[in-house]
Amino acid sequence: MSKPIVAIVGRPNVGKSTLFNALAGEKISIVKDYPGVTRDRIYADVTWLDKQFTMIDTGGIEPESKDLMLSHMRQQAEIAIETADVIMFLVDVRQGLVDSDFKVADMLRKSGKPVVLVVNKVDNFDKLMPDVYEFYNLGIGDPIPISANSKLGIGDMLDEVIKHFNPEDLLEEEDERPRIAIVGKPNVGKSSIINKLIGENRVIVSDIAGTTRDAIDTVVNHNDKEYVFIDTAGLRRKSKIKEELERFSIIRTVTAVERADVVVMVIDASEGVTEQDAKIAGIAHERGKGIIIAVNKWDAIEKNDKTIYEYTNKVREILSFMTYAEIIFISALTGQRLPKLFDVIEMVIQNQTLRIQTGVLNEIMMEATAMQQPPSDKGKRLKLFYITQVAIKPPTFVIFVNDKALMHFSYTRYIENKIRDAFGFKGTSLRFLIRERK
Ligand code: GDP
Ligand code: GDP
């Protein structure tokens, strides 16, 4: 499922981080068992009523001087306009209206994107409302008062945000063509791979109906089947600041991964897996997407008959949270194994949509529990009653047990491995929901 993207834009100190934390809460770090991956507060998943969306903070680091403020704000707004379905423009009732607010409001208005104007630090609604009305002058609609600190007005604000979600975006999901995102840090060869794929296959470039984003997707025809390659070219931004570059790269990854069925995560063979690679891989993993690790520039390293084997082990070791990912060694330069990439993509799509019958699943679970007794604690033993698959993309299973607290991560992993032994599910993560049945 592709979730809408909501971007927050606002000057430093208006309360973006505070609001972000209030909305995302604990969810900012869903995956805690690998280092450095989700600690950045750049994006988070939010659920409000029955709606889910991904929130991104385009803010980044504070500009060093007042002079740079306006260009910093422009850049934030541009990124938000390029990537978001809805933009939240956050202002500060204490600072009041400042000149750059008007400039940003102009940009947002011209973009035609839905904008929600949020006035923060309204800690006392009765007293401060007159000051809130001042923000009508921005000409981008009704200002919505909140206090991020005291969590006031947040519900009304979210109601306003989700009102703007476009039902037409859901059309994208009815499009049966597989959507592929090629991600990876700068210079690993993403554009070269896409260009090479386009060169060897018939291409239809089109603006796909229902996409409201500015990204132009590329449709590639391979063996009479159409594949949509997601492009977010607009986000290839330049910056002298390393943190900024990394931020752009992460925003670009989150937005592309969100819309993809399968993610091709490209790494540079001559560099190996870096920390930034692990971060990017973590984004695809969290979102339950199909994953292929493409080790590119395979032409550029010296090899013998063991190199692939050793390299595979090294990648598996570093990306140990996604052992299910397929690994393929390619060269965009020579075209080596690029045709095979389509075969692997095809396989991963099949696995993401695989449904296993309940009867078969329960047989596997019974056999597994017979072979290795479930754990017990203080005289109480875990009992597994029943398992059933409730969703695809990613395949999601519900296991009913007597006591959730007894179902340790390691025992869930054990059951997962048994299911994988039977059905493979290569290239896709599996989700397990544990429910209690007395
Ligand atoms: P950012 O730079 O936009 O991410 O802003 P921060 O979230 O870091 O907030 C800047 C300052 O404003 C911090 O000292 C916050 O505690 C404070 N702040 C944030 N929200 C509120 C609020 O609702 N009321 C008040 N009084 N202060 C707030
Ligand atoms: P991107 O930033 O990830 O899109 O990377 P590019 O596609 O722009 O490639 C970055 C650099 O790596 C360019 O100089 C490419 O020519 C080079 N490159 C890309 N793929 C390969 C490859 O398979 N082998 C070698 N030797 N160089 C490559």
Automatic annotation (TrEMBL):
Binding site for GTP 1: 10-17, 57-61, 120-123
Gene3D superfamilies for the chain: 3.30.300.20, P-loop containing nucleotide triphosphate hydrolases
Domain of life of the native organism: Bacteria
Keywords, alphabetical: GTP-binding, Nucleotide-binding, Repeat, Ribosome biogenesis
UniProt xrefs under InterPro entries: AAA+_ATPase (IPR003593), G_ENGA (IPR031166), GTP-bd (IPR006073), GTPase_Der (IPR016484), KH_dom-like (IPR032859), KH_dom-like_a/b (IPR015946), P-loop_NTPase (IPR027417), Small_GTP-bd (IPR005225)
GO biological process: ribosome biogenesis
CDD domains: EngA1, EngA2
Function summary: GTPase that plays an essential role in the late steps of ribosome biogenesis.
Protein name: GTPase Der
Annotated gene: der
